[in-house]
Amino acid sequence: MDRDELAGDVLVAAVRLLGCTVEADTPEGTVAVRLVEVEAYRGADDPASHSFRGRTARNGVMFGPAGHLYVYFVYGMHFCANISCLEDGEAGAVLLRAGEVESDLAVAHARRPTARRSADLARGPARLASLLGFGREHNGVDVTDPGSPVRLLAAPPIDPALVRSGPRVGVAAAHDLPWRFWVAGSAAVSQYRPGRNAPVGRL
DNA sequence: TTTCTGATGGCCT
DNA sequence: GGCCATCAGAAAG
């Protein structure tokens, strides 16, 4: 993947990433997934973004050049992975929410023994990160470098007719922005739970 | 099948 | 000290 394709707009970058492959070296072997669900995040103008309140030690990668891995720890037990977008100095990233395994299924199942169906192996951002073995040490890795332990491989753009969009998952802020994108028909897209995302007020 | 809840830790105010 | 870009297993229908 060329870095320039991610450096323009986060929404364009998010759609561009659909169908592309992320490949990672793990102790069990190389694992590759085809991205089918992503979410775009921006900077000071995006209240749902980690970078909304400016640059910190954690979110520094979001402010760097496009094409680097932003890995963070959530809920005390999971990692999630983004790919940074936009030019150096401008905050932006695309969260990798779900993918389909393209590499050896036996290797993938060995890494995530609890997944009963292959479609569940990388369904959900923390599952995807777990399958690919992402941890703190991967934060900042250049995924456009063929020599990196994590590589982003370009694929022909997805047919626009197959791209769906909707509100981002699990974030209360900016619920009106349809900045989640997925490939229609994929079994690996994380399940949409109506009514759980939009707080309708309490009592 | 869908819905609910416990586990668990770092970041930011 | 509260809030999270979550998951897996259990419970209920």
TrEMBL record:
It is an enzyme of class 3 (hydrolase). GO terms for molecular function: hydrolase activity, acting on glycosyl bonds. It comes from the Bacteria. Keywords: DNA damage, DNA repair, Glycosidase, Hydrolase. Its EC number is 3.2.2.-. Pfam families: Pur_DNA_glyco (PF02245). InterPro entries: Formyl_transferase-like_C_sf (IPR011034), MPG (IPR003180), MPG_sf (IPR036995). The keyword DNA repair applies. The keyword DNA repair applies. Belongs to the DNA glycosylase MPG family. HAMAP family: 3MGH. This is Putative 3-methyladenine DNA glycosylase. It comes from Pseudonocardia xinjiangensis.
